């Protein structure tokens, strides 16, 4: 989990930065001139009470110090004091980070909130999509980041050059891209043009692409080659593994020595399934609670499990068995061949639905939520969540309105305790509300509006198949506090994936 440390706020009247900080604090009077005066700025919009902002603070400071040498500025704005400025730039939750190339080019920061990741991301932003390399600059470029790609292409090969440049523009946030048309450099690297070499500071050190230059092939090569054969799951890498679109095999252990031993033993299996299943160790002494999310016991390590990340299915390895190359090889083979059924954590299906809100559990999720004949609005909640408790009476009123309307057989208002039941969705915070429209269950719509009955009715009407609308007594709107977008509390992290 991110460390809960917060640097004191800078005294701010105008542009200010004390001797201990390389982060510039801005306000409405200084923001415009600062952005115009610097080619590239990363700005954090924060609130002093925000837990994630406190966790980010030391990482942000460290990145600012490193990037100062490269003339890349990091700034911050206190939205409790500069609410108008924050509203101007569409800040809805904290922290919000945006990249400014002047006032006309603004993009969201989508990297990890760690010093190294921020530094790497912003250096990529400062460079052209493709850096043209020579014999004098190639060697330094190879080690400019943990992963870099260099294309060796003849100057006359217009098609390959265009394809590579397009890929570089698309993935400039993820990798550094370089290129050279010097045939002698290609020869020295042992390749013939056109080719791409991915240089990396782990595993075998580099990987080579010599196939036809096509978008999909290059993208797949970069994604597979840049992922460690056996990596490590932690705050910096978790979201990347979740978004990779591949199953993730976890190796839990409480000591670094044991993680290395187990990782070495399972390397041949990881090599066999490279590009099909990602393998990673995880520190059970720090993140052992995450084992519970994979339906493993949280007090018995080492342990092993596979998560099908797209469907959020869990396949825990029997914790009474020893983790060896042979036992895990057989387990992974069965998983890959589809012979294994996922483990399903579920409460018992209610014998009778007591209230207007339909209670869903793991065992009934498919039959209720994925019923293709009905629009289903479902709330993913946690029993300890204060926002969920505040929503409960309104949500019950909403369900009653539909239950007593002409749409009672077409619209279902449901809820599921996402801490006690496995669901196909990866839930990042509570409450999460989604609409699964009839006839379009593969395209659920996320709800992000105010949590009032009126707005929820409007959401169902606008996004459901049946355009179902019901009437309710006018109520005073209670906007969502920006704090809700901070995901979960520290207690929540024990029950969800937020500890990673």
Provide an overview of this structure.
The protein is an alpha/beta fold. Helix content is 32%, strand content 19%. It is built from 17 helices and 20 strands. It has helices at 31-36, 51-68, 83-88, 115-126, 138-142, 158-170, 183-188, 215-225, 238-243, 256-272, 284-287, 290-293, 325-336, 365-369, 386-403, 453-463, 490-493, and strands at 24-25, 41-46, 73-78, 96-101, 105-108, 131-132, 147-152, 176-180, 195-200, 206-209, 230-233, 248-253, 278-283, 303-308, 313-316, 358-360, 375-381, 411-417, 432-436, 445-446. Strand 19 and strand 20 (445-446) form a beta hairpin. Helix 2 (51-68) packs across helix 4 (115-126) and helix 10 packs across helix 13 (325-336).
In a nutshell, what does this entry contain?
The protein has 500 residues and is α/β, with parallel strands linked by helices. Helices cover 32% and strands 19% of the residues.
What attributes characterize this protein structure?
500 residues, five-stranded mixed beta sheet, 17 helices, 32% helix, globular, alpha/beta
């Amino acid at each position: 989990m991110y460390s809960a440390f917060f640097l004191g706020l800078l005294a701010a009247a105008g542009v200010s930065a004390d001797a201990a900080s390389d982060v510039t604090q801005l306000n409405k009077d200084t923001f415009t001139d600062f952005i115009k005066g610097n080619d590239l700025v990363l700005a954090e919009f924060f609130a002093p009470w925000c837990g994630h902002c406190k966790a980010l603070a030391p990482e942000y400071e460290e990145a600012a110090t490193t990037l100062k040498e490269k003339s890349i500025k990091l700034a911050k704005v206190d939205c409790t004091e500069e609410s108008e400025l924050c509203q101007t730039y569409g800040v809805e939750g904290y922290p919000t980070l945006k990249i400014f190339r002047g006032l006309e080019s603004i993009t969201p920061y989508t990297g990890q909130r760690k010093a190294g990741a921020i530094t790497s991301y912003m250096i990529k932003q400062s460079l052209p999509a493709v850096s043209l390399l020579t014999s004098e600059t190639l060697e330094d470029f190879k080690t400019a980041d943990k992963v870099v790609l260099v294309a060796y292409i003849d100057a006359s090969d217009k098609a390959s050059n265009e394809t590579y440049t397009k890929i570089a523009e698309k993935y400039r946030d993820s990798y550094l891209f370089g290129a050279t048309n010097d045939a002698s450099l290609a020869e020295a690297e042992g390749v013939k043009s056109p080719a791409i070499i991915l240089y990396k500071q782990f595993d075998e050190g580099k990987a080579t692409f010599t196939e036809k230059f096509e978008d999909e092939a290059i993208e797949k090569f970069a994604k597979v080659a840049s992922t460690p054969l056996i990596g490590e799951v932690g705050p910096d890498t978790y979201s990347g593994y979740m978004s990779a679109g591949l199953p993730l095999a976890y190796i839990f252990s409480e000591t670094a020595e044991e993680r290395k031993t187990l990782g070495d033993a399972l390397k041949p299996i990881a090599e066999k399934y490279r590009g099909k299943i990602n393998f990673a160790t995880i520190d059970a002494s720090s993140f052992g609670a995450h084992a519970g999310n994979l339906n493993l016991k949280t007090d018995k390590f080492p342990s092993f499990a596979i998560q099908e990340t797209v469907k959020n299915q869990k396949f825990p390895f029997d914790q009474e068995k020893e983790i060896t190359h042979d036992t895990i090889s057989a387990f992974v083979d069965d998983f890959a061949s589809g012979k294994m059924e996922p483990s399903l954590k579920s409460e018992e299906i209610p014998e009778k639905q007591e209230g207007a809100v339909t209670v869903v559990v793991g065992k009934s999720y498919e039959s209720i939520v994925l019923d293709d004949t009905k629009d289903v609005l479902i709330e993913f909640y946690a029993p300890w969540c204060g926002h969920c408790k505040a929503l409960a009476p309104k949500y019950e009123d909403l369900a009653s309105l539909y239950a007593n309307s002409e749409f009672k057989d077409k619209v279902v208002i449901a809820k599921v305790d996402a801490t006690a039941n496995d669901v196909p969705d990866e839930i990042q915070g509570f409450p999460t509300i989604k609409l699964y429209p009839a006839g379009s269950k593969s395209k659920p719509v996320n709800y992000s509006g105010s949590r009032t009955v009126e707005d929820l009715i409007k959401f169902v009407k606008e996004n459901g198949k049946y355009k179902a609308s019901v009437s309710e007594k006018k109520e005073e709107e209670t906007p969502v506090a920006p704090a809700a977008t901070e995901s979960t509390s520290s207690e929540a992290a024990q029950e969800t994936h937020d500890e990673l």
